[in-house]
Amino acid sequence: MKKAKWLVPTIYIIFLMLPIYWLLNMSFKTTTEIINTYTLWPQEFTLDNYKKIFTDSTWYTGYLNSIYYVVMNTVISVAAALPAAYAFSRYKFLGDKHLFFWLLTNRMAPPAVFALPFFQFYSSVNLFDTHVAVALSHCLFNIPLAVWILEGFMSSVPKELDETAYVDGYSFWRFFFKIFIPTITAGIGITMFFCFMFSWVELLLAKTLTAVAAKPIAATMTRTASTSGYELGLLAAAGSLTIIPGAIVIYFVRNYIAKGFALGRV
Amino acid sequence: MNKTVNQKAWFFVIPVFVLVAFNAIIPLMTVVNYAFQETFGNNVFMWEGTRWFKQIMLSERFHASLGRQFLFTFIILFIQIPLGIAIALTMPKEGIGVPVCLVLMSMPLLIPWNVVGAMWNIFALPDIGFLGHSLNALGFDYNFTQQIGDAWFTTILMDVWHWTSLVVLLSYAGLRSIQPAYYQAAEIDGASRWAVFTKIELPKMKKVLTIAILLRFMDSFMIYTEPFVLTGGGPGNATAFLSIDLVKMALGQFDLGPAAAMSLIYFFIVLLVCWVFYTLMMRNEEKS
């Protein structure tokens, strides 16, 4: 019994890796090989699919667009959430609980409900098909997320820290930037990671709010799939590349990821 | 922590309030606006009262997609929660295995949702996908684009693949917070493995498990992209869950009135669950 314990996680990880392997496998195959034969690994190993993505601007601008609005959203969300999280963790004020609950409901609103009104709203303020539109619309779920994660981290900082600083003659803002923010850098890093991640994986709103100029990579993929027939190799290569950013950041936050989920995704 | 009353704290909350209100209240009002009116284009609106709500509540199409949604959510909860706990219990507790497991298991959570759908599409295709090809080679007549049962099987398997790790990570975090003293005491008392699980581990995991169940409930309730890319809601309407049906109605057929009414009913269901959860969570926090 004891010895067989490693079996369960191993089987589970193999199950997780199989579809990813299959995607990578496809991405190194030529289109003829994909369609005509069934092979467990590429017979004619090719990098053409990746070459196409890095040289064709319709493909690589998709990545740039995605990264652009994701970074913009992360910065906006964290910057706005920092003071709010501080207020929630330190003070009682009129309507604080209701406000918190209201934020919570936005985290839970199905994006499909907002797709159409967002389209009309952002068109009417002339922001349709801009990076700003996507970045702002992702604030809908990322700001509540950032507020919760940060609030969790800030509440674990004892209040005596604030009081000592005031006794020492610090003004509020000087305390906030010089002392408080440095003590919660880990929390800020994790919040940024989660904002990055949820903006990166979301597609419904990003697709609805863009046409050409700010089209995310994920939308480029779905549109290619439906218009130019079945270029599966290319699609697989593009898909494999979208896994990389997540795989890199996850390594840095591996010890905090569970805590982040527990705090933020409620 | 005992908090001090300070009404000026509102100034800190204003940026968040403005940004979220900009995204939530104005579009939501648009939806409410459509839900009570009929439009023939050109911005001409006629008051319709609650007609769309009655129409949606009585429509077979809505009942069908709501039914499919509940069935789907129930099945994936039933699989993912026990499976996630089982994997968390067997995960290594120290050494090199810990980061390896954590990083590899988190991978599916960070893949864009439409890539998850596309990945499973090529993984499950009966002629060139590993899963489809293997199942057919083993003698099963498997084709998820044609057969309803296979489409459901593939969608559920994809969701298990995509989200079980979340339950694993949360349960694992809950397990790690148990003091070794509890286990030592259980050993001295000669408690069985099962008794340790039900009397120590499960109660200690209660909080994270509540979070896990509700997260999975909500996210599976709003699932859109993955099944949309995988099956497109098909064959027929077999895997058209609430969101897919809603987007079809709103952006595909441009039936704004009924779609808006459906959005509000849909949102109301989520809100109700959310409220129950919030009160439960707050009560738990007050107790501890």
How does the SSE layout of this entry go?
The complex is a heterodimer of chains A (266) and B (288).
Chain A: H1 7-27, H2 31-36, H3 48-55, H4 57-90, E1 91-92, H5 96-108, H6 111-124, H7 131-155, H8 160-167, H9 172-183, H10 185-201, H11 204-208, H12 217-227, H13 232-252, H14 257-264
Chain B: E1 4-5, H1 10-35, E2 37-39, E3 45-47, H2 51-58, H3 60-90, H4 97-106, H5 113-124, H6 130-137, H7 148-176, H8 180-188, H9 193-204, H10 206-221, H11 225-230, H12 242-252, H13 256-287
Antiparallel strand pairs in B: 2-3
Helix pairs in contact in B: 1-13, 2-13, 3-7, 3-10, 7-10, 10-13, 12-13
- What is the H level of CATH, i.e. the homologous superfamily of the largest domain in chain A? MetI-like
For the record, give the distance between the C-alpha atoms at the N and C termini of chain A, rounded to a whole number.
36 Å
Give the overall silhouette of chain A.
Answer: globular
Helical fraction of chain A: over 70%
The major β-sheet of chain A equals: none
Radius of gyration of chain B: 23 Å
Largest sheet of chain B: 2 strands, antiparallel
CATH architecture name of the largest domain in chain A: Orthogonal Bundle
Strand content of chain A: under 5%
Could you say how many structural domains of chain B there are in total? 1
Order of helices and strands of chain B: EHEEHHHHHHHHHHHH
Counted by DSSP, the helix tally of chain A is 14
- Biggest interface between chains: A-B, 98 and 95 residues
Number of strands of chain A: 1
CATH topology of the largest domain in chain A: MetI-like fold
DSSP helical segment count of chain B: 13
